[in-house]
């Protein structure tokens, strides 16, 4: 570890923090329907869209209607994307002549992009046409991200409203998020990325002669526009197979830094939106504080583990950190930071191969996802995931001040606890359940590239990434099989919608409640004590469940490695 | 908080029946009410069956699995024991109540109202009218419709001094099981046999009719959810182990599962609820439901009647304020004479003040040849007539009006003709300004006049109860707003409110005002507690979230409230809030403790469980437990014993201190959160040492 390394981490944190208030303020105005800087430009378009779709922008929805609209919208999006992939060979913008996508892979891709996961069982440049990338994936990148943000705002409204029947309009939230937030930011961001050297073209792949005289095909395409939204919207699906490790997706140190910041920007700012909307900024900062504490612990462990390098190699007097699977141009700290950021948020873009991290370095991304990606998290998803944990925390510990639990003046009762537990239960069921299945059936056992604990980690990582809607891959797992494509897709769909719908139910039930004024007897939820408590509950309720699995994966791998034992290849 | 000392928790008389009860409660039909412990029971039954099979076929490690199974059953028995013990404490109280109820007969009046038939109390129906005479036990709850009687209510209140029950007014309710000591009353029965006050009290303290409160239901959902999470965590292990090339014995998986699920709070939850109810009963307050006790902890606003709660019931003379030209001594002398025969507490206080401050000794009415003129609602004054002179004291406006007329004693005599009333004489204005000053300061002015001449004003002061100011400060720290309810005018009310330190007051309050105030507070989302006794309090009692009816009150008030204070002490509202908070805190503290325990249990069992697969995992055995088997056994023994160890805390409750929520949270988090993390590490290690020493594993 070096001073320079820690400085980069500190700078990253400072830039993200500096963005929280301005972005949060702007987003609050967008979601409360106020005029913004962009209104003169965007409002006519917004009106036009409502008129075209027959939406009354003042017509708010009950949470059930909101959930219904969201599910219907995604079912439609899912079918369109699936169909598009299945017939891409017949459609234009296919200069590389990609064939139609196989049914199981198309199912997996559709599930993956609709759920904001962007798990990729395929290599983009060898599988998809430009049309599929742009109309199918980039389009879903926008809408799945906008949905996450809309949902989190609906939940925030549950806290900020009193005795209300409605939680907002899904159509309006979706439209405003896209028009006022994602599109403008992405346009600017895309131009920046182009300036850094990322291609943005509809032209065909280039055949070039290398310096040694060999011939090589350079894959190109409308890359910059997709990279912009894949980061901002925490989608993570790369244009190329190598994702952000590819020089055309992430060419410079600056682009790497900005990409990391853009993963956290909206998620972190949403905590500020939360604070503003409930009328107490400190509440937002407390939540961000809990996220920050978990994040800093994570990066410290990964950076330390990667800097220390492999104990097996160290024993052979090969000193130095672990550079396997990392881009030399990024080095250890930028790779470690990227890995923690991308798994803390549900982005899943990678600039290094997590499979090649040290056992402990690879364990932190795994834990980040197992906690439900509440450390900043996916845009929107991180906030509502965190609020679900807040509800559990308040319920467990709130009684200790001698009152029935309440948060921000809302009584937390049976219904909220039931929905919060449903949302929390879904993740271990998908992650552990499918891992348990894959580790005993032949189709599952055929996947991992390594034997022993590392192979186990590869399987566990895949299902964890899918259910948490992260989409990053540990690598090493051969996932483009009917078994993995199908089970991972199911994991993604459950991991998304079985969290969203309970969260919306909580929003509806909270909005209908009265808001109690705070008093000296009210559980304080803005201080360090609460932050510590929240972190504790997240680790114990969210994390301990995975202790047996982690013990058999990265922990034992680390202990064995320290003792000089390796497990070879398997699969 | 003061409360009557409770009997020893583990007295032999309670423990014996509780042990029997805890085995009886193993019946799965009873167990299913508690989801966490029901799951443990299902697991225990299945493993016992498998154990029996293994015993027949002969399998390795039978001694080990036998011990684990034994401790599973112990866990269940300990959980039941906690509940049975809590119920037992209530039952002991109920038993004495029940004795009063047996074999009562009633004198039911026939339609003509003149003669009666003797029927068993159990045959009475609502609406029947019974005659209760000296020595009779009142057969059922009801309302006195005719007569006055002194009644011994020791059976329900424990207070042996008899109380007066009379028809009409606010003291008309009688309770079945209490005894008439003198006189006779006619009582209209208001509760059928089996649903009387005493019946409900018995059912509640025994825990028989205890419905789960909303918070308990929600907590059970959380515990069930956590249990399900650990089902996933444990059920996936066999596959993981098989991938690693081994297998985990079922009994070890069972041990991990049972130690991880929140058995501690699951086992103690109902005991905590019963004990909370029990604490109220010991405090001579009867809650009609557990929901009411929970609500008491949540109260945001307390409505307190001024008289009897904030101030002593009577006012006292504290000062004589003469008008210009009259000495204090003269005024004191006149006031004392006017009060000599006044037997009211206020009158006495005037005599006492005159003696204490001006050395005016009591005089004999007869020797002075004085005649007492008693207070009447019409004249609103009282006094004495002596030797052609008359002294009056009373409400300022009445006295002032009276000096505008000929003096009473000389009315009709010639002197009256010479009397020249002056509508706004100097004295009148002076008296009125003094009176206003006193009222502003929260006192009650009494004007004194002799022979039509105003002498001055007696300052009667409402005496705020000692220590009440501190109580209100305490409540404020708890985040509770206090509102004083009084019939006084706003000026007086404001002064007393300031002196007592209440946050707000409602002056010249009518029952409608009270109800409106409660609704207004509730509209803001606040929970309101109040106490009351009169029939006109009933709507407000019913509207309040916690309505404490005084036992001396009317049937209507008692029906409307959700708690009854058997001592009829309105100050108790403050303690009731404390008991509610204590109940909730105990529940929260033990939940936190239970969940925090899991960390140590994981570290005990996970390395032990996987050691056969990966010997490297020995590094996770941070407690240095002797062997995998002893580690697993120690964890499950700790899991069972911690239930027993926490029973006293569950029954007595976590101490509540009236500090802010932040300080309370910090303290409880330190004790029960951090304690919950650390204690099991130490406990499991200690048990492991014992297990190893005894060669149990």
UniProtKB/TrEMBL annotation, chain A:
Keywords associated with the record: Cell membrane, Ion transport, Membrane, Potassium, Potassium transport, Transmembrane, Transmembrane helix, Transport
Pfam families xref list: KdpA (PF03814)
Transmembrane segments: 6-26, 63-85, 142-159, 179-198, 257-274, 286-305, 328-350, 357-376, 382-401, 422-446, 482-507, 528-551
Membrane topology annotation: Multi-pass membrane protein
Record localization: Cell membrane
InterPro entries per record: KdpA
PANTHER family the UniProt entry points to: POTASSIUM-TRANSPORTING ATPASE A CHAIN (PTHR30607), POTASSIUM-TRANSPORTING ATPASE POTASSIUM-BINDING SUBUNIT (PTHR30607:SF2)
Function: Part of the high-affinity ATP-driven potassium transport (or Kdp) system, which catalyzes the hydrolysis of ATP coupled with the electrogenic transport of potassium into the cytoplasm. This subunit binds the extracellular potassium ions and delivers the ions to the membrane domain of KdpB through an intramembrane tunnel.
Subunit structure and binding partners: The system is composed of three essential subunits: KdpA, KdpB and KdpC.
Family under the similarity heading: Belongs to the KdpA family.
Name of protein: Potassium-transporting ATPase potassium-binding subunit
Organism of this sequence: Methylobacterium marchantiae
Upper classification of the organism: Bacteria, Pseudomonadati, Pseudomonadota, Alphaproteobacteria, Hyphomicrobiales
Gene this chain is encoded by: kdpA
TrEMBL record, chain B:
TM segment ranges: 35-52, 64-82, 217-241, 247-272, 599-617, 629-649, 669-687
Listed EC numbers: 7.2.2.6
Topology in membrane: Multi-pass membrane protein
Taxonomic superkingdom: Bacteria
Residues holding Mg(2+): 533, 537
Active-site residues annotated for this sequence: 305 (4-aspartylphosphate intermediate)
HAMAP family according to UniProt: KdpB
Protein known as: Potassium-transporting ATPase ATP-binding subunit
Annotated source species: Methylobacterium marchantiae
């Amino acid at each position: 570890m070096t001073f320079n390394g820690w400085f980069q981490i500190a700078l990253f944190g400072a830039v993200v923090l500096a963005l929280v208030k301005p972005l949060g303020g702007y987003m609050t105005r967008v979601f409360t329907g106020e005029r913004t800087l962009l209104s003169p430009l965007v409002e006519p378009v917004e009106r036009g869209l409502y008129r075209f779709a027959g939406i009354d922008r003042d017509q708010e929805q009950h949470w059930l209607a909101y959930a219904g609209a969201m599910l219907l919208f995604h079912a439609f999006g899912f079918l369109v994307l699936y169909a598009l992939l299945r017939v891409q060979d017949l459609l234009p913008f296919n200069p590389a002549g990609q064939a139609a996508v196989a049914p199981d892979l198309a199912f997996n891709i559709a599930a993956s992009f609709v759920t904001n996961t962007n798990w990729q069982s395929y290599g983009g440049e060898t599988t998809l046409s430009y049309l599929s990338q742009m109309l199918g994936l980039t389009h879903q990148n926008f809408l799945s991200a906008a949905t996450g943000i809309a949902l989190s705002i609906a939940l925030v409204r549950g806290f900020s409203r009193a005795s209300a029947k409605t939680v907002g309009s899904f159509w309006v939230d979706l439209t405003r998020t896209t028009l006022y937030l994602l599109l403008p930011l992405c346009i600017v961001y895309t131009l920046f990325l182009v300036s850094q050297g990322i291609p943005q073209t509809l032209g065909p792949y280039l055949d070039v002669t290398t310096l040694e005289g060999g011939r090589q095909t350079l894959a190109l395409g409308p890359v910059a526009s997709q990279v912009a939204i894949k980061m901002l919207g925490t989608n993570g699906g790369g244009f190329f197979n190598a994702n952000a490790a590819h020089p055309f997706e992430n060419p410079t140190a600056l682009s790497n830094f900005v990409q990391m910041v853009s993963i956290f920007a909206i998620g972190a700012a949403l905590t500020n939106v939360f604070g503003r909307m409930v009328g107490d900024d400190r509440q937002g900062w407390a939540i961000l504080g809990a996220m920050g504490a978990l994040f800093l612990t994570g990066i410290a462990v990964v950076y330390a583990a990667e800097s220390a390098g492999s104990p097996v190699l160290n024993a052979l007097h090969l000193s130095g950190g672990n550079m396997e699977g990392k881009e030399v141009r990024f080095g250890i700290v930028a790779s470690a930071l990227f890995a923690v950021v991308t798994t803390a948020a549900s982005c899943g873009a990678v600039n290094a191969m997590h499979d090649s991290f040290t056992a402990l370095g690879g364990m932190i991304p795994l834990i980040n996802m197992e906690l439900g990606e509440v450390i900043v998290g996916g845009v929107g998803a991180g906030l509502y995931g965190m609020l679900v944990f807040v509800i559990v925390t308040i319920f467990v510990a709130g009684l200790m001040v001698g009152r029935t639990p309440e948060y921000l003046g809302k009584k937390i009762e049976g219904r909220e606890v039931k929905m919060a537990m449903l949302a929390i239960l879904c993740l271990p069921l998908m992650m552990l359940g499918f891992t348990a299945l894959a580790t005993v059936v032949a189709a599952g056992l055929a996947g991992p590239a390594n034997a022993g604990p590392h192979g186990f980690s590869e399987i566990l990582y895949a299902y964890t990434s899918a259910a948490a809607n992260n989409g990053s891959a540990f690598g090493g797992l051969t996932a483009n099989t009917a078994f993995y494509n199908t089970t991972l897709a199911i994991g993604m769909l459950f991991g998304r919608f079985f969290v969203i719908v309970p969260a919306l139910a909580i929003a509806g039930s909270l909005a209908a409640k009265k808001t109690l004024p705070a008093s000296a007897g009210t559980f304080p939820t803005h201080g360090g004590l609460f932050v510590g408590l929240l972190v504790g509950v997240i680790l114990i309720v969210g994390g301990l469940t995975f202790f047996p699995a982690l013990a058999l994966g990265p922990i034992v791998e680390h202990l064995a490695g320290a003792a000089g034992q390796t497990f070879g290849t398997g699969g | 908080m003061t409360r009557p000392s409770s009997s020893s928790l583990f007295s032999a008389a309670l423990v014996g029946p509780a042990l029997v009860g805890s085995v009886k409660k193993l019946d799965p039909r009873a167990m299913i009410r508690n989801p966490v412990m029901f799951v443990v029971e299902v697991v225990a039954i299945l493993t016992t069956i498998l154990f029996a099979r293994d015993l027949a076929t002969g399998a390795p490690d039978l001694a080990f699995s036998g011990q684990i199974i034994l401790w599973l059953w112990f866990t269940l028995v300990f959980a039941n024991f906690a509940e049975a013990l809590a119920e037992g404490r209530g039952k002991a109280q109920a038993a004495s109540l029940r004795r009063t109820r047996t074999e009562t007969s009633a004198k039911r009046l026939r339609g003509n109202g003149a003669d009666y038939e003797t029927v068993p109390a159990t045959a009475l129906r609502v609406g029947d009218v019974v005659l209760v005479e000296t020595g009779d036990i009142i057969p059922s709850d009801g309302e006195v419709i005719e007569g006055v009687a002194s009644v011994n209510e020791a059976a329900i209140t424990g207070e042996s001094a008899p109380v007066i029950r009379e028809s009409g007014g606010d003291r008309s309710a009688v309770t079945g099981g209490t005894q008439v000591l003198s006189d006779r009353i006619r009582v209209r029965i208001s509760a059928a046999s089996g649903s009387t006050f005493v019946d409900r009290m018995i059912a509640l303290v025994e825990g028989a009719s205890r419905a789960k409160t909303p918070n308990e239901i929600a907590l059970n959902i959380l515990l069930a959810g956590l249990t399900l999470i650990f089902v996933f965590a444990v059920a996936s292990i066999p596959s993981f182990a098989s991938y690693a090339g081994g297998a985990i014995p079922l009994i070890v998986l069972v041990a991990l599962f049972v130690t991880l699920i929140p058995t501690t709070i699951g086992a103690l939850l109902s005991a905590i609820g019963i004990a909370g109810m029990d604490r109220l009963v010991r405090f001579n307050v009867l809650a009609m439901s557990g929901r009411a006790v929970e609500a008491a902890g949540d109260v945001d606003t307390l409505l307190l009647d001024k008289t009897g709660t904030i101030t002593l019931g009577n006012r006292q003379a504290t000062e004589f304020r003469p008008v210009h030209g009259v000495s204090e001594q003269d005024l004191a002398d006149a006031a004392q004479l006017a009060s000599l025969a006044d037997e009211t507490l206020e009158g006495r206080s005037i005599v006492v003040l005159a003696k204490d401050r001006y050395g005016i000794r009591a005089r004999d009415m007869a020797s002075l040849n004085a005649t007492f003129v008693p207070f009447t609602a019409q004249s609103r004054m009282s006094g004495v007539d002596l030797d052609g002179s008359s002294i009056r004291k009373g409400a300022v406006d009445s006295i002032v009006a009276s000096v505008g007329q000929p003096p009473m004693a000389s009315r009709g005599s010639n002197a009256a003709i010479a009397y020249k009333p002056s509508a706004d004489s100097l004295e009148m204005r002076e008296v009125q300004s003094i009176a206003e000053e006193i009222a502003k300061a929260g006192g009650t002015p009494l004007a004194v006049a002799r022979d039509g001449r105003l002498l001055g004003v007696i300052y009667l002061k409402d005496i705020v109860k000692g220590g009440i100011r501190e109580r209100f400060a305490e409540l404020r720290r708890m985040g509770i707003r206090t509102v004083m309810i009084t019939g006084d005018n706003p000026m007086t009310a404001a002064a007393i409110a300031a002196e007592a330190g209440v946050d707000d007051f409602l002056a010249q309050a009518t029952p409608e005002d009270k109800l409106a105030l409660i609704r207004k507070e509730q509209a803001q989302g606040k929970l309101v507690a109040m106490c009351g006794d009169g029939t006109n309090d009933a709507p407000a009692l019913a509207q309040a979230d916690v309505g404490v009816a005084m036992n001396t009150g009317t049937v209507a008030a008692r029906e409307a409230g959700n708690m009854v204070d058997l001592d009829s002490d309105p100050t108790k509202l403050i303690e009731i809030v404390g008991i509610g908070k204590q109940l909730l805190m105990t529940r929260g503290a033990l939940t936190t403790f239970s969940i925090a325990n899991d960390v140590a249990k994981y570290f005990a069992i996970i390395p032990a469980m996987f050691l056969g697969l990966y010997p490297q995992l020995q590094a996770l055995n941070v407690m240095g437990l002797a062997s995998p088997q002893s580690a697993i056994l120690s964890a499950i023994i700790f899991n069972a014993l911690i239930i027993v160890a926490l029973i006293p805390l569950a029954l007595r409750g976590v101490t509540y201190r009236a500090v802010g929520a932040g300080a309370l949270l910090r303290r409880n988090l330190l004790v029960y959160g951090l304690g919950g993390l650390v204690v099991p590490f130490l406990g499991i290690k200690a048990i492991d040492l014992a297990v190893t020493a005894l060669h149990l594993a």
